[in-house]
Specification:
Layout lengths: L1 H14 L4 E5 L9 H5 L4 E3 L5 E3 L3 E3 L2 E6 L5 H7 L5 E3 L1
Antiparallel strand pairs: 1-5, 1-6, 2-3, 4-5
The protein binds iron/sulfur cluster.
Length: 88
Amino acid sequence: MAVKKRRKKLRATREIKINMKIIQERSKCIGCGSCAAVCEKHFKMSEDGLASIIGGQMDNGNMILEVDDIACVREAVEICPVQIIKIE
Ligand code: SF4
């Protein structure tokens, strides 16, 4: 019985996908590379020396990507010395 309940709860959890956005104020990036070091799944250093969100789109000076898994992004948010990475 307990196993059935757990499976049902797990199934329900998997069905709930919350879309979130990673937002980087790219124009304020100082190119330290910390975000890419702690979260290579979502950040990379670009040829211009600034970080980019992998697969992100530029919008009004910000780079934005919708995701349903923010795993390591929280670390990037915390480690960015100029605090330009946000999760919404
Ligand atoms: S941690 Fe912040 S300042 Fe450093 S590269 Fe990433 S976005 Fe730019």
